[in-house]
Design goal:
Elements: H1 2-6, H2 9-19, H3 24-55, H4 63-77, H5 81-86, H6 90-111, H7 118-142, H8 153-162, H9 164-187, H10 190-227, H11 229-256, H12 258-266, H13 273-280, H14 283-298, H15 304-357
Length: about 350
């Protein structure tokens, strides 16, 4: 439901606000249209959800637990982080998220003491998010002078349609990450899946070190692509070269110290995962370059369909080769398939950038 209410606006909304950040009237129009779209989507999915939990007997026993989740959805809707990111107010956006975590943690410790308190997690999380979201909207109104203008319904529908590909890309990207481990668990077993997960977590940690750079530069590229292509080229060269060198360094570290990293994080009993981590060592380089192309060139350049196509191709490859790779090579086949799919994805994105963006 959070995915639905976000509807790709974390990327699409950020890009639009960044492109028109110097035009006060246009910014208010964009905010009003997107926020209205989010509101309508939230109402629709919440209504469907309430209908399900009140009519389907499966949900009766934990009715309040599911109902309390609606607070989380409301809090998510009330925090238009995409608007702040579009203005490159990354500090303020991060502060809002940190405040939610800071305020919820002590409440979790005090009020959640046994399994029967699980619904309190959603009440606390959603309640705090609603509080912080409301304060954020007030701050945006009086500090940033954001004004809500009742939009034309047709404009709302058009914007919703235009961002559908980004929404679908987000869904598919999350589904894609589950295909290979799910197939491994079914075909080989829990032990192989456990080793894979250890290596994949280490790989993921290395990748996440550099991804915030691409995400932080995303709104700047959205602005430059729309207003100054020459400056966009210069920034792309500097950021691309820096990210390539840093990610190459991380890949080398994973390759050389894979055994030590696994022992440090998981313990000596899982040292077998180090060979899997060696195969995944190239992933930080490949994944960072793909992220660079997506968040600094393709989406800022307005080629959302290219992003969707790449995610679709990668998902189909995972589905097509999962069974034979797992059956023949087990967990080694799983990590090899991960790398193979990422490399194909990078080649596809690079080819599309050359053909369509022409930078």
């Amino acid at each position: 439901m959070c995915w639905f209410s976000n509807w790709g606006y974390y990327l699409g909304g950020t890009k639009l606000i960044a492109a028109f950040r110097d035009d006060v009237t246009k910014k208010d129009q964009i905010f009003s249209v997107i926020w209205t779209s989010q509101f309508l989507i939230t109402i629709v999915v919440s209504s469907i959800f309430i209908l399900l939990i009140t009519t389907v007997s499966y949900f009766e026993q934990d009715y309040f637990l599911y109902l309390s989740g609606l607070l989380v959805i409301t809090g998510n809707f009330l925090m238009p982080l995409w608007y702040l990111n579009g203005l490159e107010k990354i500090v303020e956006s991060s502060l809002a998220q940190i405040l939610v975590e800071t305020l919820t943690l002590p409440l979790y410790i005090v009020f959640i003491n046994n399994p029967d308190d699980i619904s309190k997690y959603f009440v606390i999380n959603g309640g705090v998010a609603i509080l912080i979201g409301t304060l954020m909207l007030l701050w945006m109104r009086f500090k940033l002078r954001v004004t809500y203008i009742l939009p034309n319904f047709q404009d709302v529908m058009n914007t919703t349609k235009e961002n559908f590909s980004l929404f679908l890309s987000t869904i598919l990207a999350n589904v894609n990450t589950s295909i290979i481990p799910y197939a491994l668990g079914i075909s080989v077993g829990d032990q192989a899946l456990g080793l894979f997960n250890i290596a994949d977590r280490m790989r993921g940690a290395a990748v996440q070190i550099l991804h915030p750079i691409s995400h932080a530069l995303f709104p700047r590229m959205g602005y430059l692509m729309a207003n100054d292509r020459g400056a966009a080229k210069r920034l792309l060269f500097r950021s691309g070269l820096s990210l390539m060198l840093l990610s190459l360094f991380l890949s080398i570290i994973l390759l050389i110290f894979s055994s030590d990293i696994v022992r440090l994080v998981a313990g000596t009993e899982f040292v077998q995962a180090s060979t899997l981590l060696k195969i995944l060592a190239i992933s930080p380089l490949v994944s960072t370059l793909s992220s660079f192309l997506i968040y600094q060139i393709i989406i800022p350049g307005g080629f959302d369909s290219v992003y969707l196509s790449s995610i679709t191709v990668m998902g189909l490859l995972s589905l097509l080769f999962a069974a034979p790779f797992m059956y023949l090579y087990g967990s080694h086949g799983a990590v090899t398939l991960v790398v193979f799919v990422e490399i194909v994805g990078l080649i596809f994105l690079t080819t599309m950038c050359v053909r369509k963006v022409k930078l």
